[in-house]
């Protein structure tokens, strides 16, 4: 918190709490194992250390957002021109220029404000209460009032409100995916650990932002607020520098070039005017009109609206854009660094394979917590009721289990898991077989249990089966198989000799090689659980029922999304906190990992120099077990190669990399608030395929920007050529400065704004990414301008010279020339709709916005020419209808020349027979 003073004892050596003895931790935090803090000491600490919360994200005021829209060299140049015009008493011209600048700023500010409001709607309220022991009594307090030294009381379902060292734990498991990226809950223990233990392996610590999935615990708070691991990561994210977007870089380069060119042209105009002995005021205004003619005033507005349209289109496809610039950046993306858990996968453990004691392998269909699926052996569907061995395994897995599955919810779909995801997966598998867990547990009640122990990796329950005792044990195969003396088959129990045991272990290894989390289940009848003897009492007495392999399944739509990325020239790279084997297996299933690709763990990455990483990074498709600073390093390594990096993530640990990436993409449902605050785009449905849809919309937006650039620059270049040529040839100005401003803002602006509403052409995702180094005026745009500009210039200037020499009054000639320029633009906008498709076959109705813009533009131009008050303002006079019709014909070569170029381009692109 701003101005917050942190207790040195609460944060000194923050990474060593796990390595200290409990007595030392309690003493340093001035607490007591049983009674916790006194009320007075807790209040004193709260006032000294501050509340247990992170600083609120700094919200930019609307004024700051508005002022931010003026940061453009083009805008600076326009403002300078307006100031000079005002100083020369050409107030109308100055006010029109200021109107252009203000309109652009308002549009950009309004769109960014809408994006921020969309983000606010996504925020999820955090748990705000916790149970603590103070002065020897348990009490509920607000989480923000927790201080170092408080004793927390936690149980399954509790959110962890602060970083804490465990005092006591009973079968405690904590889901830490949001912090470390681990896809399964972590079993916790009390004993101290070596100082060098990494964050993900600190089993005697629990951290803010995680939650308890099973068991109970007492824990001593060691850090709150900004002193927690979440707080440190948030600070790291805040300090990460956000790079300029490719579009911002292009505009900056172009703006500098325009400024230089404007100065040169202005000096040239002044020089020509002096040589012609023209009045200084007139020369300066002509120079300003030249500068204004050079600047495509509609470009900032067109770019802003093009990106805003992209924002709205992305919103319809469940992508919320926080910064307009991120829309265009997506179109330039070459690398997507994506988290695995919850992003590529469903974050719902699912049983997918079963190995029976007779070594038969059974596949289980259906993914996630929806209890819909079937059982298959090879290509044969199995009726579980006709498979007593399979049914016995599934029933045992439900009985030796503390998890539940609630649902379906109102409406008939959606299930809510309660308990450890690994155990929930077993419940779901049994329900797929028609077993009702609640009924089975009622029929076979539990008498006793040995809770899961992280040391033995086993759990046992004792049940009453018709008056007889039955003990079911489940756990890690490498441990449980050592306790088995037999295996249960259709013929009864048969000895588990060395040969059979070896075969079962090979089967377990085969399942593990598929990145499956494997559990073994065994049973013994007629015995009782002896807590004193523990699991050792079952040595050699258990009968193996089978092995169950489960995994966090990939989202079904992700594989197709990854393929689309490849087709679009985008490389997807997995960056996860999970294990390398698991990550590699998922990456191979989804097509992220190609043959010959590498998977690198955080420890390996730590030992690499920057040079070695740069050499190997092309071959790495999976980065596993990485921490936040390493994610930053990975993003930085790609950016140094010139890649445009998108980083997707949902956890607190993703935040720094989300900020560092060119475009950070956070998950809207499972994403933490820290991740959402750090991202530029939020995927509302947590669906990876949505990022691909957003990339497509980004490419459409950028393509439409290039169409607008072509239209604006071809017109601006023609205006400058006509004005400068006429001046140097001794003619008066073909246009009044206010006419140029009207044309650039209204006539040209209307069709430009609607041109950027063009729908996708359909081939956006089959093209390579937009190059970050690509200039605003690309080679293709310049080539097309080479055809358009001479035609527009020759047509307009030729008519002006012809009518001037014919003795037509100057005001009428200027109005005709002004009208002809506008007509040429109307033809040219049809040219700009596609690079190769004919304007005659594209159909105006595919973009009704453009059709409306042309109609409105015609009406407004008629008003300027024929409505006297506007005519006086814009220095026009009414024209005969016959002249207007002639002008419509005279301007048509602009369309026909470009149609000829497109026809030649299509002929060249056609494959030879």
Give your account of this protein's structure.
The protein has 913 residues and is of the alpha+beta class. Among the domains are: 8-56 and 147-223, Calcium-transporting ATPase, cytoplasmic transduction domain A (Distorted Sandwich), CATH 2.70.150; 350-551, Calcium-transporting ATPase, cytoplasmic domain N (3-Layer(aba) Sandwich), CATH 3.40.1110.10. Strands 10, 11, 12, 13, 16, 17, 18, 19, 20, 21 and 22 form an 11-stranded mixed β-sheet that branches. Strands 8-28-27-26-9-23-25-24 form an 8-stranded mixed β-sheet, with helices on both faces. Strands 1, 2, 3, 4, 5, 6 and 7 form a 7-stranded antiparallel β-sheet that branches. α26 (737-755) packs parallel to α28 and α28 runs parallel beside α33 (893-909). The longest helix has 41 residues, at 688-728. The chain is elongated and about 120 Å long. The termini are far apart. Residues 1-13 and 118-127 have low confidence and may be disordered.
């Amino acid at each position: 918190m701003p101005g917050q003073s942190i207790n040195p004892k609460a944060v000194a050596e923050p990474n060593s709490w796990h390595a200290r003895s409990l007595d030392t931790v309690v003493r340093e935090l001035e607490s007591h194992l049983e009674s916790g803090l006194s009320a007075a000491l807790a209040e004193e600490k709260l006032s000294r250390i501050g509340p247990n919360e992170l600083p609120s994200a700094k919200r930019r005021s609307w004024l700051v957002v508005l002022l931010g829209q003026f940061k453009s060299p083009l805008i600076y140049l326009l403002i300078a021109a307006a100031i000079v015009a005002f100083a020369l008493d050409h107030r109308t011209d100055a006010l029109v220029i200021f109107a252009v600048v203000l309109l652009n700023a308002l549009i950009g500010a309004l769109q960014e404000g809408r994006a921020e409001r969309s983000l606010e709607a996504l925020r999820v309220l955090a748990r705000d209460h916790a149970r603590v022991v103070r002065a020897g009594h348990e009490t509920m307090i607000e989480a923000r009032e927790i201080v170092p030294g408080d004793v927390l009381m936690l149980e399954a379902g509790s959110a962890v409100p602060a970083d804490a060292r465990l005092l006591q734990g009973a079968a405690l498991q904590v889901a830490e995916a949001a912090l470390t990226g681990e896809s399964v809950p972590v079993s916790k223990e009390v004993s101290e650990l070596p100082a060098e233990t990494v964050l993900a392996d600190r089993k005697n610590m629990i951290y803010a932002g995680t939650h308890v999935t099973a068991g109970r615990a007492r824990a001593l708070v060691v850090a709150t607020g900004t002193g927690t691991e979440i707080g440190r990561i948030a600070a790291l994210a805040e300090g990460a520098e956000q790079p300029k977007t490719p579009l911002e870089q292009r505009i900056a380069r172009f703006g500098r070039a325009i400024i230089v060119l404007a100065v040169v042209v202005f000096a040239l105009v002044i020089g020509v005017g002096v040589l012609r002995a023209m009045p200084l005021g007139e020369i300066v205004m002509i120079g300003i009109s030249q500068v204004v003619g050079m600047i495509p005033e509609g470009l900032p507005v067109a770019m802003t609206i093009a990106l805003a349209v992209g924002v709205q289109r992305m919103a319809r496809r469940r992508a919320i854009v926080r910064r307009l610039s991120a829309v265009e950046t997506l179109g330039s993306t070459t690398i997507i660094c994506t988290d695995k858990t919850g992003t590529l996968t469903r974050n719902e453990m699912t049983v997918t394979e079963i190995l029976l004691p007779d070594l038969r392998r059974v596949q289980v269909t259906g993914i996630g917590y929806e209890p819909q699926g079937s059982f298959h052996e090879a290509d044969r569907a199995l009726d579980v009721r006709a498979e007593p061995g399979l049914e016995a395994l599934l029933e045992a897995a439900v009985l030796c289990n503390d998890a539940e599955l609630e649902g379906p919810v109102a409406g008939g779909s959606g299930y809510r898991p309660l308990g450890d995801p690994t155990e929930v997966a077993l419940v779901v598998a049994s329900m797929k077989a028609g077993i009702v867990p609640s009924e089975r547990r009622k029929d076979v009640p539990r008498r006793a249990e040995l809770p899961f122990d992280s040391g033995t990796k086993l759990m046992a329950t004792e049940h009453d089966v018709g008056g007889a005792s039955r003990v079911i044990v489940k756990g890690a195969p490498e441990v449980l198989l050592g306790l088995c003396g037999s295996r249960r088959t259709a013929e009864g129990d048969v000895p588990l000799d060395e040969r059979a045991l070896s075969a079962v272990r090979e089967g377990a290894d085969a399942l593990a090689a598929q990145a499956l989390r494997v559990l073994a289940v065994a049973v013994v009848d007629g015995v009782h659980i002896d807590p004193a003897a523990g699991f050792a009492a079952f040595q050699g007495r258990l009968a193996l029922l089978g092995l169950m392999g489960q995994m966090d399944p990939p989202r079904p739509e992700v594989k197709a999304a990854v393929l689309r990325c490849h087709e679009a020239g985008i490389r997807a790279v997995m960056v996860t906190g999970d294990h390398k084997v698991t990550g590699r297996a998922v990456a191979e299933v989804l097509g992220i990992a190609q043959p010959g690709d590498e998977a690198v763990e955080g420890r390996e990455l730590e030992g690499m120099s920057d040079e070695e990483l740069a050499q190997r990074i092309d071959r790495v498709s999976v980065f596993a077990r990485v921490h936040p600073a390493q994610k930053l390093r990975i993003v930085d390594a790609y950016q140094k190669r010139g890649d445009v990096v998108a980083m997707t993530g949902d956890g607190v640990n993703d935040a720094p990399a989300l900020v560092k990436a060119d475009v950070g993409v956070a998950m809207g449902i499972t994403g933490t608030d820290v991740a959402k605050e750090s991202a530029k785009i939020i995927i509302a449905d947590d669906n990876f395929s949505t990022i691909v849809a957003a990339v497509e919309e980004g490419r459409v937006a950028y393509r439409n920007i290039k169409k607008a650039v072509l239209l604006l620059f071809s017109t601006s270049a023609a205006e400058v050529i006509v004005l400068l040529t006429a001046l140097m040839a001794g003619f008066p100005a073909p246009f009044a400065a206010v006419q140029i401003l009207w044309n650039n803002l209204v006539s040209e602006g209307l069709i430009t704004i609607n041109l950027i509403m063009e729908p996708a052409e359909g081939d956006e995702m089959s093209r390579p990414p937009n190059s970050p180094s690509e200039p605003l005026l690309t080679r293709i745009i310049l080539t097309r301008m080479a055809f358009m500009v001479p035609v527009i210039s020759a047509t307009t200037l030729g008519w002006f010279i012809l009518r001037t020499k014919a003795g037509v009054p100057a005001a009428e000639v200027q109005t005709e020339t002004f009208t002809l320029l506008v007509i040429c633009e109307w033809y040219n906008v049809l040219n700009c709709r596609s690079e190769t498709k004919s304007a005659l076959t594209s159909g105006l109705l595919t973009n009704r916005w453009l059709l409306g813009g042309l109609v409105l533009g015609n009406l407004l131009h008629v008003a300027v020419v024929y409505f006297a008050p506007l005519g006086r303002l814009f220095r026009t006079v009414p024209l005969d209808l016959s002249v207007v019709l002639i002008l419509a014909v005279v301007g048509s070569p602009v369309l026909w020349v470009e149609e000829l170029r497109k026809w030649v381009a299509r002929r060249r692109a056609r494959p030879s027979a």
